[in-house]
């Protein structure tokens, strides 16, 4: 295995381990696995897991032709969790949480479009929309930092990094894949 690949795999494992620890912190802080923020975290872990599965095995530049039924079922459970949390953020009128949740759903939709229709994934319109959505998540993280909401700030930062790992998988950067 080339050293670039080993480095990236180690980085990816460290980021995902940090993310799992982050989810554990949110569940612990909430004191209830069914608290909206905990459900949100669990849902996005499921979504990220399916994305990792689908993108890590997809040859660069090739379209995903189908998603397995178990993966689709998992993905739908993840989105149900994310939408449950979004409805809670709307109910409590938290504009930062709402903006963050909607941006992540938009990023997720773009990733699916890129997986099934890779042509145009680097085009101006998709790239611009992608960067705007990531910018929204970044601004939300900065707002949490300014407010002193350190766990929310850390959460926002680690999720941004995790989704960039998925983006690297999609765009097939040479150091991200095992040659088959």
Describe this entry's structure for a reader.
By secondary structure, this protein is mainly α. It has one domain (3-176). Helices cover 78% and strands 0% of the residues. The protein has 6 helices and no strands. α4 (95-116) runs antiparallel to α5. The radius of gyration is 16 Å and the shape is globular. The N and C termini lie close together (11 Å). 26% of the residues are buried. Residues 174-180 have low confidence and may be disordered.
Keywords:
globular, 180 residues, mainly alpha
Provide a brief overview of the structure.
This protein has helices spanning 3-30, 36-56, 69-91, 95-116, 124-147, 150-171. By secondary structure, the chain is an all-alpha fold.
**Shape estimate:** globular
- For the report, how would you describe the main beta sheet? none
The termini sit apart by: 11 Å
SSE arrangement, N to C: HHHHHH
How many distinct domains?
1
Q: What would you call the structural class?
A: mainly alpha
Beta-strand percentage?
under 5%
For the secondary structure, the number of strands is 0
Rg is: 16 Å
Poorly predicted spans: 174-180
Write the layout of secondary structure elements.
Elements: H1 3-30, H2 36-56, H3 69-91, H4 95-116, H5 124-147, H6 150-171
Helix pairs in contact: 1-2, 1-6, 2-3, 2-6, 3-4, 4-5, 5-6
């Amino acid at each position: 295995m080339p050293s670039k690949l080993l480095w990236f795999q180690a980085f990816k494992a460290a980021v995902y381990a940090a993310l799992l620890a982050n989810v554990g912190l949110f569940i612990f802080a909430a004191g209830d696995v069914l608290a909206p923020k905990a459900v949100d975290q669990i849902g996005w872990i499921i979504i990220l897991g399916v994305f990792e599965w689908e993108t890590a095995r997809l040859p660069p530049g090739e379209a995903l032709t189908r998603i397995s039924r178990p993966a689709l079922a998992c993905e739908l459970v993840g989105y149900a969790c994310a939408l449950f949390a979004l409805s809670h953020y709307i109910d409590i009128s938290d504009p930062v949480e709402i903006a963050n949740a909607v941006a992540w759903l938009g990023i997720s939709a773009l990733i699916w479009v890129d997986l099934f229709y890779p042509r145009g994934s680097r085009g101006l319109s998709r790239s611009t929309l992608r960067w705007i959505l990531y910018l929204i998540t970044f601004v939300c993280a900065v707002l949490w930092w300014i407010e002193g909401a350190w766990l929310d700030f850390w959460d926002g930062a680690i999720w941004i990094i995790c989704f960039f790992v998925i983006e690297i998988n999609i765009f097939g950067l040479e150091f991200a894949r095992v040659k088959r």
